[in-house]
Design a protein that fits this description.
55% helix; three-stranded antiparallel beta sheet; mainly alpha; 295 residues; 5 strands; two-stranded antiparallel sheet
């Protein structure tokens, strides 16, 4: 008994460590799902739930957390490349695994990850944006004009309210985003921002709000917000009608950054208007035409 007492085998702390040592990944994941995941943004919750159900639990769920070590995680990463999954998807899945296991488990590991293939992001030229807007009608003309004239994310644009507009000051304030037709907080802290707009967009918005002082700027007949996926499909239909290459709502964002930088707007201002955390990110959104490069 004295030996046991000296070793602290009978203490509550020892019992807790013993129980934790035999927990499976599935048990740890369930605790994390109930206590950590609900504190994250809805879009993040949905993505990480998919990581858990489709990949992490089938592979690690039955294993004690104590046997999940670098070699086993590396084998898991390799199996995902054979699935096959893209590099970004694999990085996100491992990011979820890291959150569940905790930083200490990954601290000394050196897991090799696949590198994303570099590809040129589709962006809309000024001429393409003008054609898209001209081919649109009703609210969609205003939505696409706003995206082209601000570089807002699709969800940010669709979640705008009339009170976010200060048309006398040529300014839009971004206060929220949207996900699956529901208002959310903006993507990041930098996403809360004021964006300057030109007189042409001011007039388009003034006609659209028609004196309204509050409430969502863009709504369906049911009164609910437009879903970003629906807006994307609407854009794809217009691009097809115009005979233009496929592109998403982010094509406006990339196009706006490119226009601003081609016209010599200071980099710090462009980054602030777009809501990026660094100029390095803004650089990836910048595309110059061959004519511009030659000039």
């Amino acid at each position: 008994r004295e030996v046991l007492a000296e070793l602290r085998v009978n203490t509550a702390e020892h019992l807790e460590r013993a129980v934790q040592a035999i927990n499976t990944f599935g048990q740890e994941a369930e605790w994390w799902r109930e206590n950590r995941l609900p504190l994250m943004k809805r879009s993040t919750q949905d993505g990480m739930t998919g990581h858990l159900n489709n990949h992490l639990l089938p592979y690690f769920g039955h294993l004690p957390v104590t046997v999940i070590e670098e070699k086993r995680v590396q084998e898991f990463v390799t199996s995902l490349t054979r699935a096959p999954l893209g590099a970004h998807s694999i990085q996100n899945i491992i990011g979820t695994l890291r959150l569940i296991l905790g930083k200490k488990s990954f601290r000394d590991w050196n897991v090799a990850m696949p590198k994303p293939a570099r590809k040129e992001q589709r962006y809309f030229t000024p001429e393409e944006m003008q054609r898209i807007i001209a081919a649109s009608s009703g609210q969609w003309r205003v939505i696409f004009a706003t995206l082209a004239g601000t570089g807002l994310r699709g969800g940010e644009c669709l979640a705008l309210h009339s009170e976010d507009l200060d048309l006398s000051a040529n300014r839009i304030t971004v206060r929220r985003g949207s996900y699956r037709g529901q208002e959310t907080t903006p993507k990041t802290d930098r996403a809360y921002r004021a964006v300057s707009i030109d007189d042409g967009l001011v007039e388009v918005l003034r006609q659209h709000i028609a004196g309204r002082k509050a409430g969502p700027l863009f709504v369906q007949e049911t009164g609910s917000l437009f879903n970003v996926d629906y807006a994307r499909r609407k854009l794809e239909a217009i691009l097809k009608q115009l005979g233009l290459p496929k592109g998403g709502l982010h094509g406006f964002r990339h196009g706006r950054v490119s226009v601003l930088r081609a016209h010599g707007v200071p980099d710090t201002l462009v980054t602030a208007w777009i809501g990026h955390s660094s100029l390095r990110t803004t650089d990836r959104y910048t595309h110059f035409s061959e004519t511009y490069r030659k000039d």
